[in-house]
Amino acid sequence: MTFIRRRKGALVAVALAFCAGAAALPAQAETLRLLMPWNMSSAGNTALGELITTLIEENTDGEVTLQKFDNGVVPPFEQLEPVASGVFDIHYTDPNYHAGDTVVGQIMDTVIDDIEKRRSSGIWDMIDQAYQKRNLKLVAAAPHMGYQFILRTEPSAEGALNGLKIRSNPAYDGTIRSLGGAPIQLPVTEVYSAMEKNLIDGTAFPVHGVLSSKIGEVAKYQMRPTFSQSSALILMNLDKWNSLSPELQEKLLQAGRDFEAQASGVIDEIAAEDEAGLIAQGVPTKRFGDEAAARITLYHNEGIWNQASKNGGEEADQLIRFVKDNNLVFSGR
Questions:
Q1: CATH dotted code for 3-145+229-270
Q2: Could you report the per-residue pLDDT of 231-290, keeping only the tens digit for each?
Q3: What share of the chain is helix, strand, coil (3-state, %, to 5)?
Q4: Sequence ranges of the domains in the chain
Q5: How many Cβ atoms sit within 10 Å of the Cβ of residue 173?
Q6: pTM score
Q7: 147-228+280-312 — its CATH code?
C-alpha cells in the first residue's frame, strides 16, 4: 500500500473519530488530534503519551483536550508529514523516527540534559526555528535515558562488540562500528526471531520497553553502561499553533516545560523495572570493557553528528558547531 493511500485512509479514520469524539465535548473545548509512534504495547510511549495529555489538559484547565492516534493509523517512520500538513495537530515522537525527513531533532540527543541550559543557551530556540521551516512548532524536547545493547553472545575479549552482528538502525550504526560490531538493519518486529535463530548476536535497544518486547527470552546479557540519551519531542502543526490565542499558546508552552522536567523520571522508572525484570528472568547486567564503557556515548554522539552532517547539510553543520562551541555536548549521566 502506498503512503498516499495510507494517508487517505488516515484522513478518513481521523475525520470519523474526530467527529464522534467532538460531539461529546463542551462547545468551548479545543480538541487537538495527537499522533503517537506506537500503540499501548509500548510502555514508554503509553506513559509519555499519558503524561503530555495530562499536563496539557491540566495547564489549560480543560480548554484543550487530546484525541490520541497511533501507529495503527500512520506507521511510526511516516508520521511527520501528516502533522506538518495538518492531518494531525500535535505529535509526540522521537527524532530518530523522522530522520528521513529532517535530522535536526537528532542533534538534541547530543546536547546536555540540563533543561534550563538547553533553553538559556539558545539551542532549544534554534531547533524550534528549524522545525518551523517545516511548518512545525516545537513545544517540548525532553531528554531522558537513551539506549543499551542486549546480547545473546558473550562480548569480545576486549569487552566490546568485535565481530558481533548487531541489529541496528541508522542512529546506532556509528556506535556499533566504533565498538567493532557489524550493524544489521532490521525492524524491531524481527529482532526476536533473528536472535532466536542466531542470525544476529544482539540488538541496540531503548532502555525502556525491552521487557514487554520479550527479547529477554532470547538474550543472555544486558550490557552496561547504557549510552547516550533520547529526546521525547512534542511538535505541533504551525498553522494550528498560529490559530491559537497567545494565552493558550503560553499555557501549552508551560505544559511543554513541565513535560521536559518530568519525562526523564518516567522513563527512569520504566527502565529500572525492565532491568530488574530481565535479571529475574536470568538475563544479568554485564559491563563493557573500560575503554568501550568510557567512550560509548562519545561514539554515539559522533555517529549522530556524522549522519546529520551528511544528510542535513549546512543547517545541521551550524547546529553541530553551536553545540560543540558552547560546551553543550552530552557526555553521559
A1: 3.40.190.170
A2: 999 999 999 999 999 999 999 999 999 999 999 999 999 999 999 999 999 999 999 999
A3: 55, 20, 30
A4: 3-145+229-270, 147-228+280-312
A5: 19
A6: 0.87
A7: 3.40.190.170
